[in-house]
Design a protein that fits this description.
α1 packs antiparallel against α2, α1 runs parallel beside α6 and α3 runs parallel beside α4. The protein is globular and about 50 Å long. It has a single domain, classed as von Willebrand factor, type A domain (Rossmann fold). It is built from six helices and 15 strands. The chain is 21% helix and 28% strand.
């Protein structure tokens, strides 16, 4: 499998949650560690999937929309952590940049949207002793969640570089083969993997209508190889409208800096971090993620006082019932026109 350089892409997001327009540009270099990126940094060298086309060979579907509209998926649970699926629009208060929206365009309980899921598996040396079990749990998850007629998933392993083992497909046999083909070894470039998966896979995958984009990241959360910074990876996930669920492989029961990384990434994108106490709990974490992806609400609105200035705008969704908990992405970037 030969390595290849992924071209940089200047992305202009006009409809969050997956509606993007993209233009391919020549290659550049990632900012060095600690350097603030200007625009979108270039992802690292990525190994393509066996038999798969290069990322720059994939068709890019372009969407343009004159009126700014923000799309948000969110989950509501009760005090026991059970999903609440029967709420109405008037039972929430929305704040965008600390102001109510100008107009609510759409609201629905979305339990059956097509999924576009990236399974990202840490293949570094740090998880070698529990790797086989993680593979089997991941295969079980994909077989349970991917519906061949509507859903697609891809499998990406990462050590020093992201390694695309299986491109987007609804073929469960190909996905299973992709997971089984992963071999652990090397350092960890987790932020590069998240950045690449959001920008070059989930953003570029064409869709005929609304889809739910998600990443399931299995890792110990430590990173010692990435050229992309943590905040750059989080920003890219937010720009792509991707919900990230993280599953920690740290079994020490003592949360470390890696677990903190996983928590920050998940909560910033509206996802959820999981910390299995023992390796056998990993399957339970995958099962909970599956249930959550099928139990979310969707809201679309026009923000008040919107300016396409590239600035970050925080989002807050507050339920009228104070006993309920809402989990959603923390905000988005107002893309320049």
């Amino acid at each position: 499998m030969r390595s290849m350089r992924v071209p940089a892409i200047l992305l202009s997001i006009t409809l969050l949650g997956g509606l993007v327009s993209a233009q391919i540009q020549p290659s550049a270099t990632l900012p060095s560690a600690g350097q603030q990126a200007s625009g979108s940094p270039v992802p690292p060298e990525v190994k393509p999937a066996n038999g798969g086309g290069a990322p720059d060979d994939q068709a890019v579907q372009t969407f343009r929309k004159g009126v700014q509209e923000v799309n948000v998926f969110f989950t509501v649970t009760d005090k026991h952590g059970k999903f609440v699926k029967d709420l109405q629009r008037d039972q929430f208060r929305i704040l965008d940049n600390n102001k109510p929206p100008k107009q609510i365009k759409d609201f629905a309980a979305q339990t059956d949207l097509p999924l576009r899921v990236g399974l990202l598996i840490d293949a570094s040396n740090s998880i070698r002793d529990r790797f086989l079990f993680e593979q089997e749990a991941a295969i079980e998850f994909l077989n349970q969640i991917v519906r061949p007629k509507s859903d697609k998933a891809f499998v990406l392993a990462f050590d020093e570089v992201p390694d695309l083992h299986q491109d987007f497909t609804n073929d469960l046999q190909k996905l299973t083969k992709g997971v089984r083909g992963i071999r652990p070894g090397g350092g960890t470039a987790m932020w590069d993997a998240v950045y690449y998966a959001c920008r070059d896979k989930l953003m570029k995958e064409p869709a005929d209508g609304p889809v739910r984009r998600a990443i399931v990241l299995v890792s110990d959360g430590d990173d010692n190889q990435s050229r992309a910074l943590r905040q750059e990876a989080i920003d890219m996930a937010q720009k792509a409208g991707v919900i990230v669920y993280t599953i920690s492989t740290n079994l020490s029961n003592i949360k470390d800096s890696g677990d903190k990384n996983l928590k920050l990434l998940a909560e910033a994108t509206g996802g959820r971090p999981f910390y299995p106490f023992k390796i056998q709990d990993l399957s339970d974490a995958f099962t909970e993620i599956q249930g959550e992806l099928r139990s979310q609400y969707f809201i679309a609105y026009t923000p008040e006082d919107f300016e396409a200035n590239g600035q970050y705008r925080p989002i807050e969704i507050v339920p009228e019932n104070k006993k309920l908990r809402v989990r959603a992405k923390k905000g988005y970037f107002a893309a320049r026109q």
